[in-house]
Amino acid sequence: MKKPTLMVLAAGMGSRYGGVKQIDAVGVHGETLLDFGVYDANKSGFGKVVFIIRKDIEKDFRERLFDRIAKNMDATYVFQSKDALLTQEQIQLSKERTKPWGTIHAVLCAKEAVHEPFAVINADDYYGREAFSILGKHLSSLENDSREHAMVGYVLDHTMSLSGTVSRAICTVKDDYLVSMQENTKIGYSGEKIISQIDGKDVVLTGKEWVSMNFFGFAPTAFDSFSTYWDDFIRENVQTEKGECYLPNGASNLVTKNEGKMRFYTTQETWFGMTYSEDRQIVKDELAKKIIRGYYPEKLWKY
After folding, report:
1. Which residues on neighbouring strands pair with residue 202, listed in sequence order?
2. CB-based burial label for 95 (10 Å; 0-12, 13-18, 19+)
């Protein structure tokens, strides 16, 4: 049985957090939140981890995370840069842009490092071991030419932050398969209500919607669909300063264009993450509780 790969999106700018949140220490022995996700993946049958980072954080990334993980499992990293995958003409047209192009672009930057079914996660989100176990089992059963992809959906009100708004893709599901996803970039509390801003209007949500937390599982055939989706995006948005090519939208496009199917698994895990600087203490407290309960050992890795 082939072991799947874990792909980690860790090249974000962290503008709301106010620092490089991917490598901020939150564990008892200086572990990052990502240490715990990789640990869960390793325990759930994943054989390799591929990090996607920015070149400017490489030194700190190695010292504060990568070198430790690489001693315990097969690990590598690749760079996402603003000009990666662009033609010379596109580089010139986008020269005023400063930020990366989003999560589809990040996944495609790692294409050459992945040769087996793979899962994708954000570096700053906590997913829970159950979710890794679900996708690890699914991906281990796939051949490389499969078009049976998968994702794990979370209950919206299990994924909210008290510190500010969050981005979540709301999912439409039928017979355990994804029908479509729509990215909502500003979901937050207004009193006791959960509000999403869509096209400048406030839309009230129930909190029970199934949402994507960017926890997907793909066979390598997904790269072809993502490449086409990226080419269409950059053609239309090459001069935008802030537009991003989102993985949930690309995954939804894969389904709606009949280029693959997306099995929709669910979990009742409660999310926490490093979106805002105020979240850091919450994350530390939640992880400490899990260590006290024995869910995690006090020391995750051999040093």
Report:
1. 197
2. exposed
Give me the amino acid identity at 292.
I
Would you say 65 and 24 are in contact if contact means Cβ atoms under 8 Å apart? no
**Alpha-carbon distance 257 to 267, whole Å?**
27
d(CA 29, CA 89): 47
Domain segments of the chain as ranges: 5-149+212-242+270-292
Q: Is 255 helix (H, G, I), strand (E, B) or coil?
A: helix
Inter-residue contact 109 to 85 (CB < 8 Å): yes
**What sign does the CA torsion over 278, 281, 284, 289 have?**
negative
Compute how many other C-beta atoms are within 10 angstroms of the C-beta atom of residue 29.
12
CATH of domain 5-149+212-242+270-292: 3.90.550.10
Query: Which region holds residue 17: left if phi is over 0, alpha if psi is between -120 and 50, else beta?
Result: alpha
Sequence length of the chain is 303
DSSP three-state, residue 68: helix
Q: What is the pLDDT along the chain (303 residues), one digit of tens a residue?
A: 689 999 999 987 444 434 466 678 898 888 999 999 999 999 999 999 999 999 988 888 898 899 999 999 999 999 999 999 999 999 999 999 988 899 999 999 999 999 999 999 999 899 999 999 999 999 999 999 999 999 999 999 999 988 899 989 999 999 999 999 888 889 999 999 999 988 788 999 999 999 999 999 999 999 999 999 999 999 999 999 889 999 988 999 999 999 999 999 999 999 998 888 888 899 999 999 999 999 999 999 987
Q: Which DSSP state fits 62?
A: I
**Contact between residue 146 and residue 219 where contact means Cβ atoms under 8 Å apart:** yes
